[in-house]
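ARCHIVE CARD
CATEGORY: sequence design from structure
SOURCE FIELD: tokenized fold
FIELD CONTENT:
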């Protein structure tokens, strides 16, 4: 790295540097980050005690953009390599979104011996180990806070504030789009499609919402969070993922009768033999649980430690400026380390990782919620009960909301705790019954505190 000019503030005896910042990507988060930087420049300067200067901005269409609101002259380029190799830039912020481009930028930045901050969850979940290796090889910082829960500083909390803890589980509502949809369905009793259309109108959901509503976005985030909490590599392919498209408003009516509600939970927990179970799925959670109170596009995380008990943290999971705060918090951490001349700590909080040891999820013993929608006729209950009985599954209760159409009649069975693999097998048989008007829905009950 080129030596940067040392400056001395009037009230400081300590010599400090001017640190140059380059930002690649000028979309939602890039613009939000620059707006926060422009607004909080003085505060950040006071916190840092050294001079952080925005040197260069890059996006494909940057030459067409009006950047007068930045209030300062800055170099612009549409070629990200010019940011990486700009001798005035020490810290590069990567916010381009596209995985292949983000990976190329990230590797080039680290290999050039520069510090990297990224908000790309997919990049970090899939290439985290390689990023760490390269950042260590070049003794540079790697900031990843914005990858999980946007503006909610959960990664810092796990890595720094709870570094003395031994976690047994972490559960999160990590996708604001799906939580907005579910909590609107719950609050207003509207259908999934109506809540989705509204989320798209308000900018909470993409025109193609698949990445969010099918649970993929949350799977990258829980992979990172699990690696951070347990110091164990987690591969995306090992995470069973189930989305929320098959949830109906009637499920909330039944959930409430059972003092529960429904949320898309991304979780990781220790299982026997030091194996880790990682999953993304909709779950029935008690209405009194902490995550049940996480409403709208908010994110919430519950960390379960074996000494400190339950620690929860909630906040904004997306949005340009909220995520920009997380990006700048990483920049501040890295700048502090550089100014103090200290070595950079590992972003995942572990110097040594365990290899992936994943528990089979269907070995879990869980109580479940089974919702069937049928064309009504005599003998339905008997046939379903016969299948459950053959698989040695006990029924806890049978519920039916009044005033439903005979040709599209939902009813619910709650099943006593049993190995999930038995219920899954029974479900396959039930799904073939001729009177079903819709595929059956099976959800686990969770005893989340
Ligand atoms: N949106 C959120 O609330 C949020 C929250 C947390 C994390 N994140 C993560 O933050 C990252 C950025 O998300 P975003 O929503 O800000 O994305 P976005 O709105 O799509 O913006 C992407 C930006 O990258 C630029 N870009 C793309 N390819 C480029 C290339 N080859 N060279 C130069 N610039 C290029 C685009 O330039 P042009 O506009 O000029 O084409 C655009 O300015 C993603 O990894 C995302 O997962 C987003």
């Amino acid at each position: 790295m080129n030596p940067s000019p040392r400056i001395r503030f009037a009230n400081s005896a300590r010599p400090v540097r001017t640190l140059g910042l380059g930002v690649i990507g000028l979309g939602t988060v890039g613009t939000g980050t620059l707006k926060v930087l422009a607004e909080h420049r003085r505060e950040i300067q006071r916190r840092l005690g050294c001079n952080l200067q925005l040197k260069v901005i890059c996006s494909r269409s940057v030459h067409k953009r009006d950047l007068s609101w930045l209030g300062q002259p800055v170099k612009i380029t549409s070629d990200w390599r010019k940011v990486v190799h700009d001798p005035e830039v020490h810290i590069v912020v990567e916010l381009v979104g596209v995985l292949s481009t983000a990976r190329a930028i990230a590797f080039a930045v680290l290999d050039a011996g520069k510090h990297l901050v990224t908000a790309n969850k997919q990049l970090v979940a899939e290439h985290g180990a390689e990023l760490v290796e390269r950042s260590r090889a070049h003794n540079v910082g790697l900031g990843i806070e914005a990858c999980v829960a946007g503006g909610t500083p959960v990664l810092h909390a796990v890595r720094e504030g709870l570094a003395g803890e031994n976690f047994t589980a972490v559960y999160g509502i990590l996708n604001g789009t799906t939580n907005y949809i579910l909590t609107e369905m719950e609050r207003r009793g509207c259908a999934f499609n109506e809540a989705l259309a509204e989320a798209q109108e308000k900018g909470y959901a993409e025109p193609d919402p698949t990445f969010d509503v099918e649970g993929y976005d949350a799977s990258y985030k829980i992979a990172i969070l699990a690696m951070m909490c347990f110091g164990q590599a987690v591969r995306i392919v090992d995470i069973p993922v189930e989305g929320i498209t098959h949830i109906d408003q009637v499920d909330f009516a039944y959930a409430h009768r059972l003092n529960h509600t429904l949320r898309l939970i991304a979780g990781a927990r220790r299982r026997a033999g030091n194996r880790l179970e990682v999953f993304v799925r909709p779950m029935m959670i008690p209405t009194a649980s902490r995550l049940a109170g996480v409403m709208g596009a908010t994110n919430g995380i519950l960390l379960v430690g074996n000494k400190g008990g339950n620690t929860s943290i909630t906040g904004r999971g997306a949005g340009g400026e909220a995520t920009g705060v997380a990006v700048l918090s990483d920049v501040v951490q890295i700048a502090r380390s550089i100014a103090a001349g200290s070595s950079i700590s590992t972003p995942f909080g572990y110097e040594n990782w365990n290899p992936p040891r994943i528990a089979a999820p269907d070995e879990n013993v869980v109580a479940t919620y089974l919702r069937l929608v049928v064309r009504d006729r005599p003998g339905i209950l008997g046939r379903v009960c016969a299948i459950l009985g053959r698989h040695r599954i006990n029924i806890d209760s049978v519920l039916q909301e009044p005033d439903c159409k005979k040709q599209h009649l939902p009813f619910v069975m709650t099943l006593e705790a049993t190995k999930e693999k038995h219920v899954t097998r029974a479900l396959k048989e039930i799904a073939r019954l001729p009177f079903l008007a819709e595929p059956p829905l099976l959800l686990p009950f969770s005893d989340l505190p």
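CARD ANNOTATION: Residues 1-13 have pLDDT under 50 and may be disordered. The first strand starts at residue 6 and ends at 7.
SHELF: design records, drawer C
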